[in-house]
Amino acid sequence: MTDAPVVAPVAETPDEDVHEQKAVRLEKRERLLAERADAAGGAYPVAVPVTDTIAALRERYADLEPGAETGVVASVAGRIVFSRNTGKLCFASLQAGDGSRIQAMVSLAEVGDESLQAWKDLVDLGDHVSVTGQVISSRRGELSIMVSSWAIAAKALLPLPNLHSDLSEESRVRSRFLDLIVRDQARETVVARAKVNASLRRTFTDRGFLEVETPMLQVQHGGAAARPFATRSNAFDADLFLRIAPELFLKRAVVGGIDRVYEINRNFRNEGADSTHSPEFAMLEAYEAYSDYNAIADLTQDLIQNAAVAVSGSTTVTWADGTEFDLGGEWDRISMYDSLSAAAGRAITPETGLDDLRALAAEVVVEVPEKVATHGKYVEELWEHFVKGSLERPTFVMDFPLDTSPLVREHRTIAGVVEKWDLYVRGFELATGYSELVDPVIQRERFVEQAKLAARGDDEAMRVDEEFLRALEHGMPPTGGMGMGIDRLLMAITGLGIRETILFPLVK
């Protein structure tokens, strides 16, 4: 007995061919429903025999010698991804959802002429089947099931793409279900994301944090500088917003006495989409009473490094392109103003006038719309121009301009800045952290200034949130807080773009 070569699906199937293949498969579906309903449940049975997973058999019989027979009968199910029908012996490769595969060998001697012919006539690439038979190793050493009986588990009406040809990125994100079938990296990314989330929760649990849930539908948006999605509630006869951040509700929880709190949530921002931005994204936010932005930076480093170890077994991760990237060690902490001054070749401080900043921006062709043209906005845009692209290693950029950070406490020793950091990895912003503003009087003043910006046309400015201010007026302890994009954390660990790290990204 020898293995026959396998045949893969065609690389690119023209629409007319797909139509023809679907018509043929629909005829087979009708035959299955008519001829095999009693014996095998037709084309879509409610259940099929399964005693073992393919992965479990591969692990159990990893050392089986070529040509060996186990005497063990097993039933497994999977999708047919390769197939070859030759005379009295047919071969198929069955793939489980985790990507593990086993060979099915359907022979005349084992199943009889009628069953073998039915396999040849009714089974196609892409079909889910259940096979029952002895576990063996073929002469070529391929772990196999010598089939004694089989059943269709689900009839596929459309052909699979070629397993040997890469799908385009557009095809991958539009048809992620196909991507998961044909590409190991797609499945591995889903597993990596699950490991990351589990690791984050373990780290928080070990530190005594509680996970909570806050509203996605909000009467008033806030917690970040972003443009919201608006919607309407018929039940409440009110305009509502999809949340741009959970911050203001998590802070309410701290006021209420939940001193260490976090949430892994979905946020929605009605803004552009590119390689690092998605209108819908997953985010982690956490707040710790009696802490500050330095301690929160330590926590964030631990969260990310533990997640890297959970996925890769080490803080040195391997990206999809094979590049190794070191997330270990202590990460640098640099000043926004100092690093900007060094890169620009001139001193830029919180006292630098708007005219000087405007002149520098014009000199290096950095544009800031007049409706948002503040000292802080110019400083941040200039910093991105001069410094951002040079940050490859994980780096905390510390101490931001006051007027762009309305929810952050003023620096304890440096006038004109706030105790805020942004964490940059591979040149993109991964997380942000604060010493939170807890003085309700100053917070109201900041909200009023934001409202003025909103009146000037700044769609990202916050509004005065009276309910949040009322919570602060009941007393919020000194608190450190952080926010991090889960999708971007996957980018840092896997080296992929944001649309690859999101299982089903929004596409037009």
Can you put this structure into words, describing what you see?
The structure is a single chain. The protein is α+β, with helices and mostly antiparallel strands and 508 residues long. Helices cover 35% and strands 25% of the residues. It has helices spanning 15-35, 37-40, 54-60, 108-122, 169-174, 176-182, 184-206, 247-255, 293-312, 336-344, 354-363, 375-386, 440-455, 466-472, 486-494, 498-501, and strands at 69-86, 89-95, 101-107, 128-137, 143-154, 210-211, 217-218, 230-233, 238-242, 260-268, 280-289, 316-318, 324-326, 332-335, 395-401, 417-425, 428-435, 479-485. An eight-stranded mixed β-sheet has the order 6-10-11-18-17-16-15-14, with helices on both faces. Strands 1-2-3-5-4 form a five-stranded mixed beta barrel.
For the CA atoms, what is the radius of gyration?
Answer: 29 Å
| Main pleated sheet | 8 strands, mixed
| Overall mean confidence score, pLDDT | 91
Assign an overall shape. elongated
Look at the helices and sheets and give the structural class. alpha+beta
Kindly report the spatial arrangement of strands forming the biggest sheet.
6-10-11-18-17-16-15-14
Give the strand content.
Answer: 25-35%
Detail the topology: elements first, then pairings:
Elements lengths: L14 H21 L1 H4 L13 H7 L8 E18 L2 E7 L5 E7 H15 L5 E10 L5 E12 L14 H6 L1 H7 L1 H23 L3 E2 L5 E2 L11 E4 L4 E5 L4 H9 L4 E9 L11 E10 L3 H20 L3 E3 L5 E3 L5 E4 H9 L9 H10 L11 H12 L8 E7 L15 E9 L2 E8 L4 H16 L10 H7 L6 E7 H9 L3 H4 L7
Parallel strand pairs: 3-5, 6-10, 14-15
Antiparallel strand pairs: 1-2, 1-4, 2-3, 4-5, 7-9, 8-9, 10-11, 11-18, 12-13, 15-16, 16-17, 17-18
Helix pairs in contact: 6-7, 7-9, 7-15, 10-12, 11-12
Cofactor: Mg(2+)
Subcellular location: Cytoplasm
GO molecular function, one term: lysine-tRNA ligase activity
